[in-house]
Structures are given as C-alpha cells and as structure tokens.
Amino acid sequence: MAPLKNLETEYPIIDSNFQNFCASHGIFSVEDFLIHDLYMLAAFAEQNVSSERLKEGITQILSIIDDMHQPWLNGMELLEDAKRNKHFLPTGIQGVDLLLGGGIRVGQLTELVGPSASGKTQVCLQTASNVARNYMMLYLDTGNSFSPQRIAYFLGKTNELASAQAKNQILQKVMSNILCHSVFDIFAMFDVLHQLESNLRCQERGGGCRIRLLIVDSISLLIAPVLGGTSTRGRALMASAGYLLKKLAHQHNLAVLVINHTVGSEGGTSKPALGDSWKSIPHSRLLLSCDRGSNVYNVSILKHPSMCLAVSTLRYLSRALFCIYLCPFYIRLLGRLQGLLFRTCPYRFAGDEKNIEKMELFHE
Amino acid sequence: MGSKAWLVEDESAREMLDRVLTERPFLLLPPLHRVPLRVGNIVEIVGPSPSAKTHILIQAAITCILPRQWKGVNYGGLGHLAMFLDLDCRFDISRFSDLLNHRIMEAANGSSSEVDCQIKESEAQNATTKPYNEELFASCMRRFLYIRCYDSSEFLATLKTLHYRLQKERETHGVNVHVLLIDSIGAFHWIDRGSSSFSLEGDTRKSLHLQSVTETVVQEIRKLLLVHPMLVMATKAAVLGNRYSMNDSKRNYRTWSAKDNLHSRNVTSSDQQVPYREYMPAVWQSLITHRILVRTTDADFVNGEHQNVSTYLSEWLLPPLNSVDKFIVRDTGVFVLS
Q1: In this predicted complex, what is the ipTM?
Q2: Which of 53-92 (A) contact B at CB < 8 A?
Q3: Class of domain A78-323
C-alpha cells in the first residue's frame, strides 16, 4: 500500500497537484484506486482547473493498474504452457500413478486425505524418494515424521539389482536433492513459502536446478489450530495458504502435495478435515484407507479436475501391492487432534510390478 | 422538411426484432436449457463442491467459441469470444481442450456413439491424441481468453481494465466477447472478511474489505454491461441447507449466524425454506438475474462399460421453476438425462 507520492519519480504526471486532488477524494495509494469509481473521478477532474493533466494522470494510473493483474492468455497459449511445463511426476506407487493418470500433476495442488495410520506419510516419503532422483524437492514436515532411513529403504527396494556403488550414488543424489524444513505453525509455513517464492523468482533468471515438488506433511496440523471459534481470521489464513500454494504450483511449475487428516461426521462416517471452505481449494483429492485385516491399501479419488466419476476406487487384491512395512521400532505420534498412538503393525510396502495379480475398478 | 427528417423511421419493429435476435441470440445451454439466456443476463450457478459447476461454464464457453458453420459442417456455436476469469485457480486447460475436441468430432461425425468408437480406434492406433481438426481447433482455442486472479486486488484490477481489453480484443478478432465466465465469485470471501479488521483510520478512507470489494465488483460489471453487452455466468460454492439434509449445515448455522447478519441477507428462522447458506453481500444478490442450484446425487449412471459417472441435479431458483433436471458430464460435455 505504497503512497502515491512514491510514484512521482517514475511517473512525473503524478505530481503534487494530482496527489492533492486524489487526497480530496480519499485516495492515497494505488490500491485505493481499485475501489473507487474512476469515471466519477474523471468527471470531478473535468471541473478542476488543470483537468487535462489530471485526466492524463488517471490514465497513467489505469496503465499501472493494468500491470497489477496476471497477463491475459488465450487457449492456445495455455495449452502450450501445459504441454511444455505441466507434466506428471510419477510417485513410484503404481496404484496412485494409475489412478492419477501418470502421477502428481505439476501446476496443481493434490491433497491426500486419510485417517490415522493409513499410510499418508509413507506415500509422501515414497514420492519424495522417487522424484528426488531427478529433481530437487522441498519437504515441509510438521510432525517430525520425515525419516531419511525410510527413504533409503525405499531406494534400496527399487534398486535391488544395482551394484553397491551405483546404489550409493543414487542414495547420495537423492538425499542431496531433498530439502527438509520443520514448520510447526502456519506463520512459519508462510515464511518458508515466501522465501521459496523469492528464491524461485531469482532462479528463473539464473537457471540451475529447480525445485519440482513441494510436500506439506501435514497441512491440517498447521491450519486446524487457527480454525474454529468465532473468528474469521483462521479461514482467511487457510484460504491465503491455499492460494499461495496454487500460485507457487502454477507460476513456478511445482507439484504440490498436501496431507490432510479425517474427522468424524454425522452418521459415524468420516470426512476430510478443514471443513467446506477448504474443499474447493485443492485440484485433486485422494482418499487413503488401510484395511488392516487383509493387508490391503485403498486409494480413491474424491475429486479430480478431469474425472466426474463417482468415488472411483482402485483396489488391489494382491498381497504385495500396497501394504506398508514398518520397522518394529518406528512409532509415530499422530495428529494431536486425534490423539492416537500409532502401534507397530506388520505391513509390507512394495512397489513391484510383478506382484500384481489382479486389478479391478470398483465404484462405491 | 428539416424538422420532419428525424420522424422518418429507421426500421420497422419486425426488422428490429430480426436484427436483435440474430445479433444477440438466445442461448439454450444444457443443463440451463429450460430458461433461454441472452446478453445482459447475469446467471449464478450455486452448488456444493464438487458439483460440475465449472463444467457448465466450460460448456457455455465451448458453445460460444465454436463457429456456427465451418467448411460445410454445422457446429451450432456462436463464433464469438469467451472470457474466463479464474478466481479459483483450478482451471484445467487439458480437460477444456479434450471437451472441445470431442464436440468438434461429434459435430463432424453426427452422433456421439460414433465418436466413442472412433476415439477408441484412434487411441489404439496412436497414443498421442491429436486434435481432430487442427485448424478449427486452433482458431477456437484462440477465441478463448483466460486470466487468473490470486486475490481481490488482482480481480479488481482485471475488472477496471476490462473495458480496454474488450475493445482491444474486438479489434484483433473482429468479433465481440459474448460470455464472461467467473469461477467462482465467492473465492476470496474469507480472505476479504479476514482483512476487515485491518481497516485504517477514519471513515473517509475505504479499505479493501468484503463490502467495498463486492460493491466495486458489482459497479464495474454493471458499467461494463452497458457498453459491452455480454452474458455473465458466475459459479458460487455454497453449503446446502437443511432441505437437502447435508450433515454440516446445522453446525454451520449456529456458529455463523451471529457474525453474518452484517454481510448477508437475513435468513428466516425456519431453515427448511432456504436451500443453501447465502454468504454473498446483498449488493451482489441484487445484481443476479438468474440463479440455478446444482448438486450431486448418490445415484450413479452407467456410461458404457466400466464407467460409472455421477448424476447431478439442477434446479432453477430464479426464476423458480418446480422441475429438477438430471444431467451427467460426458466426454462431449454436459448431457441432460431427463
């Protein structure tokens, strides 16, 4: 909200006469022009002595306002940009990749919802290990759930046939490509994201290895404490966070993956947390659930820009695809809102293609 | 003779009607086909998320940008420009281009079942989906104008400069903009409400909060429609009320009612009459000339093998018609079932 007089050096037409005229109508900065009627202002300027200069000043302000919005694009330009920049980042988990048509889409905000202990962090870690082979990525960790040992384990699993030296090289590369930040409240996340935005803008001119994936595990832990109550500030923060993530995704060609948990709703079912205002912010929403009795992991689409399907579920009936193995001493404290202690259970996590026995599309 | 000259008629009423109906035709867009729409109408599409609202806008945009006739094939479009203001920032251009491509194929081949077979054949032959008719596709895509707004200031800046942009596009393309699509109008609602506590000193200075932003938006749209008559369609995400027995609404009513009276129309105490929770200020509600409510149902529609698509219901609230239409979204666009 810089005052008008700061523009005087760059645009000499906005002189003190113009500033006084604007001040008499309650306009002190360019943002104030946005909520005033410019035609009325021009009519008032007509009655003034130096009407021509004032009207030129108004026209100059209009051209400054023209720079304040995003550029207009036509359909072909959009499509070109989508083809060139907005490709898919494979997660390395076959079920998720198949369901999403290739992987997490660059330029979009994908949300992973699931009850506690349904494998959300495991999906994140596997995606991180897969993407970090080729690109850099940023992992925002809110609950101390980031585990480099787990990433090393995933890399080992998928590179079983490589030599020890090659394995080590890949491990080094992946580990150096993952940037992990711990954030424990929403303002810290805003800090990190604004810093990232300015870094990316500088890098655009300089080139170099750029970040392609941003994971926030989990965004619900950051937003839920500020939501609720009678204040609207929490929802405003949540909406701003969502828009900042979408802006980063689109303008700097990142894929953004956020984690959300579930809460109970009427009727005993569960629904994603953060309420209805958050519902329309992510591009795609995936629901994860784990059926511990049969070691089967389900992933369903709740929302997707290209699919108007009813909850489409890919259920893997084989033992191997999608069961999560956790080291016996890996205990995780989950979302303080749910207050559950995650117990170690023998699950197996494997991404091998040869173990797919049967795949069926169910619709619920 | 000189004073009588202005009494000479320009055209008869019939000629005027013919002219107006060709220049400003009625649009019957499914699923809004029950009420013919024309320029100057402002339609609001309300519904919970997700309920195919953006698909309805895309349908309108495609109908607008397709030509009426091209190389002997009748496409049934208007051949005008369409402007899309993406406030949700969730628009997927690949989905849009797929729908456009399918519409072109369908029109060129006559029926949609043939199109499905052809698509399967062509997909079997080559993995990349090339547009069916590249030249027509490119010319249509160029008539689709798109802009994203990440906050209210950008939205207001877009609206303020829209007049000059419309003039410029008219000169470049030679045709007018016929539809202005806004997705979705309540996108910055919470952000603007949250910023009202940052109001500055005194009453003389207006700050960028919800009421002033909405008033300015309404004012700009009104002025724009005087000079550039367009059909305006805006989507709005809303929480459905008790009439449709959504689980959350009861809780929301209790927490919101105390704070919302300033900004929204006073809702009557009997919730049964209100189909959804209105949160846009009264000044926006007075701008709307048409309103339709869409929502999803639990029923599934079997669309070919291995594909169950969700059915949506649409109901006109303004003008209030007592009928409910069912529709699905296919590859060729919105398809009305009943």
Answers
A1: 0.81
A2: 62, 65-66, 68-76, 78-79, 82
A3: alpha beta
